[in-house]
Amino acid sequence: MLMTLTSAWIVLPAIVLAGALIGAVGIGGVLLVPVLTKLGGVPVPQAIAAASLGFALPALVALGPLRRQPALAARCAPLLAGALAGAAAGALLVRWLPANALMAGVTALVLFSGWRGLLRPAASAPPAAAPLSGTALLAVGVVVGMGSALTGTGGPVLVLPLLMLLRQPVLFAVVAAQAIQLPVALASSTVHAIEGRLDLRLALLFGLLMLAGSIAGQRAAARLDTLQLQRLVSLLLLAVGAWFAWLLLN
After folding, report:
1. How confident is the model at residue 140 (pLDDT cuts 50, 70, 90)?
2. What is the DSSP track for 84-123?
3. What is the rounded distance in angstroms from the CA atom of residue 172 to the CA atom of residue 154?
4. Which of 87, 127, 133, 136 has the highest Cβ tally under 10 A?
């Protein structure tokens, strides 16, 4: 175990909170790598590797809505396939590409999406755009998978703002954000394991904690209507973007 006992008292509850946010709105995994590195003292490569596999367990929570809605599952399929390929490529490139430059782009996207979502609440926003084609969803999945593997963010923090900017329905965006963690986790953690960066015990611990939080978060989100859900997503995007900006400047 790479963390000290003192840091574990801070880090482990933060991981449960991250899981609860994943279950509620899809965002939450972005907390994991910064918490592990800044508070837990885990080296960045090992933190990204453990987080990548850990996201697989809370992603299983999203399979419930997909099993109950075959049409939604079929629509998500190209997105998840693209994420699988993109995450494998991103994990291979993680040692060569400048993560700070990528994180700066992610930060701008997250802040803009959160601001736009609050500016136009769901009740007054224009109608959702036509559903994206399978090819478009595949391309979005590749971009999200690669970016997620490079930054250890799990997928939702990229796919959720992208789908919102493309005016896709917020409920579809949230379910897709939760589900996309599974292919990202499987592809990127496989590469990390091959290259010797993956601590299985650490990843399993994080995954179980996030799974418990995710189940609680999904139950809480079921009580929200569309307008409340969009506002919550937008506020979380702004909070995450502000945190990313602070991390980049410090």
Report:
1. very high
2. HHHHHHHHHHTTTS-HHHHHHHHHHHHHHHHHHHHHS-TT
3. 18
4. 87
Which percentage of the chain shows pLDDT scores above 70?
82
SS3 (DSSP) at 149? helix
- Residue for token pair 């700066």: 104
> Taking the C-alpha atoms of 245, 161, 235 and 45 in order, what is their torsion angle to the nearest 10 degrees?
-40
- 231 vs 141: CA distance, rounded Å: 25
pLDDT tens by residue, 177-210: 878 888 888 887 888 888 888 888 888 888 898 8
Residue 250: how many CA atoms within 13 Å on its side-chain side?
8
* pLDDT exceeds 50 at position 1: no
- pTM beyond cutoff 0.85: no
Angstrom distance (rounded) from CA 67 to CA 17 = 26
Question: Which stretches of the chain are DSSP H helices?
Answer: 5-25, 32-34, 44-54, 56-59, 63-68, 70-93, 99-119, 134-151, 156-165, 170-179, 181-194, 200-221, 226-249
* Amino acid identity at 167: R
Q: For residue 29, what are the contacts with CB-CB under 8 A and spacing of at least 6?
A: 18, 22, 51, 55, 58, 153, 154, 155, 156, 157, 181, 210
